[in-house]
Specification:
Length: about 575
């Protein structure tokens, strides 16, 4: 019995030891499990937790071991196991913090770029002959440019609300300049804008320009017959001194029109500002009054100060206003165009340049009978004998010009392009044109596809237009304003009329579409006998997505009248 009590006592002490107790508990649970005393539903969960815990433990040990192996031997020899674990954890935190700091630094560096990208103005960039415009999520519209293109830029060529005049007293002016504004209405308009700019460059006084009779237009019109002269002089009074007539002290006025001694004739085309200062100003100071002629395109664009280009825009868009009766008649015609269907409707303005003079001057070949071609050849030989010569070279010249997109579009070609763009048969179209070469036969394809073609003569009565028939330029002014007010403007060939309208519509905010067909690409498509309608439509739509008067960067030798963006518009 004593031996038995001693063995039991020793067994009890053995179980009370922590290590032995754990072993006993483990064996107890093992026996319970083996005996089926633990619920069978909990067995997989317990085993899964044990396996996950073992894997995490092994992973930490492996990371710890690989970390210690990367430490130098002399550092590892001084660290106890606990120190090594602490050093590992501390270094891991430092790596994480360094990574977060790097991400923060990248974010801070990228923030200005992201801000600039988000706030960049809508601007189309030209690469070679391709124009790339920002993409928008707006659905495409037949009648309007994307709204995002209208919110980036605003006009800023108007005069200041509180202008400060820097014009010297009249007795301190450098002299007087006088010009003949030649050509048609729009060429004359450009000449007037340039005359104001040249007067500003030389600090001279401008005598009100005279509209010279053109041998094509055969029109004898004075400036005050078309434009509001009082507004013109008043609006520019803080920029340039403008007088209505030649000063009384200059008695021989005929000399100013005829004498070579009073004329500056050696001004090159697109002359820079310093040319006038170096070559023209000394003669004006000497003679006091000088005429500048010829004066067509005698001032450049990118070789003059920005403030001079801004002044030209101020003249064009703000100072040169048509007479009130012309403005009122144009408003009436536009209202009638918008209500031709009985309810408000948009309308398109088409500048169709296919008059006999334009067709002849282009020296391009067009579809027609042998008789028509013979008559056109005789007309060209009579009007332009130096260019015509014997006519043998004209066929190759015509082919080359058509490939380069330098030929006017025929009415039938215009109809096909507009239909490919998606304009329906019901589209209301205002036609601004002279007498179309070929008459009704030439117009038939266009009228068949778009029967709602009208001119000002069809919109207004004979009595309403009678007061404007005194001057051809008055009728041209009506066409100009109705086209300017249209929802969509389509040009078919270059010229001052089209580029002035496109520039003005851009200056008004880029909302109004101004379509400029790619005549070079269209000539290739028209000449491809294997191109189907679906392929042609795709080419037309893709090509003309960016040719609708969108904000476009200027480039060397750009045309200020067609694209006034950089000098005359500011970030909105």
């Amino acid at each position: 019995m004593a031996e038995l009590r001693q063995s039991v006592s020793m067994g009890t002490r053995a179980v009370s030891s922590p290590v032995k107790r754990d072993d006993t508990v483990s064996s107890l649970f093992s026996s319970d499990i083996a005996g089926g005393s633990v619920d069978d539903g909990h067995r997989p969960i317990a085993r899964g937790r044990d396996r996950n815990r073992d894997r995490d433990h092994d992973r930490d040990k492996e990371a710890h071991r690989s970390f210690l192996l990367r430490l130098p031997n002399f550092i590892r020899s001084f660290l106890s196991p606990d120190d090594r674990r602490a050093y590992f954890l501390l270094t891991s935190h430092r790596v994480h913090l360094a990574f977060l700091a790097l991400l923060l630094l990248i974010g801070l560096v990228s923030l200005p770029y992201l801000w600039t990208s988000l706030n960049a103005p809508y601007l189309c960039i030209k690469e070679g002959i391709t124009l790339h415009c920002p993409k928008t999520r707006e659905p495409s519209s037949l009648w309007e440019n994307p709204h995002s293109s209208t919110t980036s830029w605003k006009p800023c060529a108007e005069r200041s609300e509180k202008p400060i005049s820097d014009i010297p007293p009249e007795n301190e002016t450098n002299g007087y300049i006088f010009i003949h504004a030649e050509g048609g209405l729009n060429q004359q308009r450009i000449a007037i804008c340039n005359a104001v700019a040249v007067a500003k460059i030389m600090n001279a006084t401008l005598i009100l320009p005279v509209l010279k009779q053109d041998q094509i237009w055969k029109d004898q019109t004075k400036l005050e017959d078309i434009f509001d002269v009082d507004h013109f002089i008043e609006y520019l009074k803080d920029d340039v001194r403008i007088v209505r007539d030649i000063p009384d002290w200059f008695t021989d006025k005929v000399e100013l029109f005829t004498s070579i001694r009073r004329t500056v004739k050696n001004i090159p085309k697109y002359a820079p500002a310093h040319f006038y200062i170096d070559n023209v100003l000394p003669r004006i100071k000497e003679k006091k009054i000088m005429a500048l002629k010829p004066f067509v395109d005698r001032l450049g664009y990118d070789n003059v100060p920005p403030e001079i280009n801004r002044l030209r825009c101020r003249v064009n868009y703000h100072a040169l206003k048509f007479l009130p009766e012309i403005e009122e008649m144009a408003d009436l015609l536009a209202v009638r165009m918008r209500n031709r269907t009985g309810s408000p409707n948009p309308y398109m303005a088409l500048h169709l340049r296919f008059e006999k003079g334009m067709v002849g001057l282009s020296f391009c070949d067009f579809v027609g009978t042998r008789e028509e071609k013979a008559m056109m050849a005789a007309y060209r030989q009579k009007e332009w004998p130096r260019r015509y010569k014997n006519g043998s070279h004209l066929w190759q010249l015509a082919l080359q010009k058509r490939k380069e997109g330098r030929c006017p579009l025929e009415p039938g070609e215009v109809a096909v392009i507009l239909r490919a763009m998606g304009y329906p048969k019901e589209t209301q179209i205002y036609v601004a044109s002279g007498q179309v070469y070929g008459g009704q036969n030439r117009m038939a394809p266009l009228r068949n596809m778009f029967p709602n073609l009208v001119t000002k003569e069809e919109l207004a009565s004979t009595d309403e237009l009678s007061g404007f028939r005194k001057h051809v330029t008055s009728l041209a002014a009506l066409d100009f304003l109705v086209c300017l007010k249209s929802d969509v403007f389509v040009m078919t060939h270059g010229g001052n009329f089209a580029k002035l309208i496109i520039g003005a519509r851009r200056y008004l905010g880029h909302r109004l579409k101004s379509i400029k067909p790619d005549k070079g690409l269209m000539s290739k498509s028209f000449g491809d006998p294997y191109m189907g309608w679906a392929s042609f439509v795709e080419d037309v739509v893709i090509t003309h997505q960016t040719r609708t008067g969108l904000p476009e960067e200027t480039f060397p030798n750009y045309d200020l009248w067609e694209n006034p963006l950089t000098p005359c518009m500011c970030r909105a």
